[in-house]
Amino acid sequence: MLVIFGCLFVCGAVLGGFSMAGGQFMALVHPSEVVTIGGAALGALIIMSPSKVLKDLMKGLLATMKGSPYNKLAYEDLFKAMYDLFKLSRREGLLALEKHISDPHKSDLFNKYPKFAHNHHAVEFVCGGISPVIDGTIKPDQIPQMMESEIRIIEEEHHQVIGVLAKTSDGMPGFGIVAAVLGIVITMGAISGPVEEIGHKVGAALVGTFLGILISYGFLAPLAVRMEFIGHAESAYLKTIVAAISGFVNDLPPKVALESARRNVGSEFRPTRTVMEGWFAAVDKGG
To answer: Distance (Å, rounded) from C-alpha 122 to C-alpha 272?
Structure first.
């Protein structure tokens, strides 16, 4: 929501300043310039990006519009779900987790915590971390390294998406110049025409440069930075899961394992110990 507000603010500031200086909105409306700049930028994006990166880019842009899902409520549901899961294992043994880990989307335990359950990536990450321990295919002290390797791959894929968006942003002023040069070529073909017509065509050419710079610095570059922040938020969330599972597989009591994980949460969303105790009490009561 903030991203949409920011985009509207950028447009409002530019158009407001233009109007205050006596400009007319229709003087900026030149579809041919938009087609030239937008088409060239899209083509360059397709040339430089593998299909997976393009798909991830579309998902990333949608995620920036929705805002980061890794907020206080997300951490609350995460800690509650982990506590419930660890408590079940402590009470009934590791094998009691198998039905929840093998088919998490049908797990009544996970579905009690919708913010966590609806984050399919996080659920699969948890299941992928605990499953080898249940199967006995890996030693507990190998779990953190295995999960952190997965996080590194996720971070690399984020950087790839951000990289192509940043490069597209860097190219927008150049595409604006291309559109402007084409506009000047058209103007030179009508140099013997009326002054008003020449002025209109020169104005259209300059709009190309204006749009290229505005789209680059006003929209694409900020979106790339926003996507980077969301990527950092996801990495932090997953690292919290690693800390929790690492404590769990090393036979720490559920509350101690989650206290260790709490210290991995950034200051913006880190719950106090008192708040954590309230969450645990709610789980113990079946809330």
So the answer is: 23
pLDDT digits (tens, 9 = 90+) for 104-140: 888 889 999 999 999 999 999 999 889 888 887 778 7
Cβ neighbors of 241 (< 8 A, separation 6 or more) are 78, 82, 122, 125, 126, 129, 147, 261
CA distance 203 to 42: 24
DSSP for 101-153 reads HHSGGG-HHHHTSHHHHT-HHHHHHHHHHHHHHHHT-S-GGGHHHHHHHHHHH
- pTM exceeding 0.85: yes
- If you average pLDDT over residues 95-102, what whole number do you get? 88
Structure tokens of 169? 């942003």
Q: Which residue, chain included where needed, has tokens 């990450």? A: 125
Amino acid identity of residue 175, one-letter, is F
pLDDT bucket at 243, cuts 50 / 70 / 90:
very high
Alpha-carbon dihedral angle through residues 245, 249, 255, 257, given to the nearest 10 degrees: -60
Tokens of 129: 């971390």
CA distance 120 to 111: 11
Distance CA 135, CA 128 (A): 11
The answer to whether 102 touches 147, Cβ cutoff 8 Å, is: no
Listed by start position, the domains of the chain span 27-284
**∠ Cα 120 126 61 (to 5°):** 35
Q: Are 242 and 147 in contact (CB under 8 A)?
A: yes
pLDDT of residue 1: 66
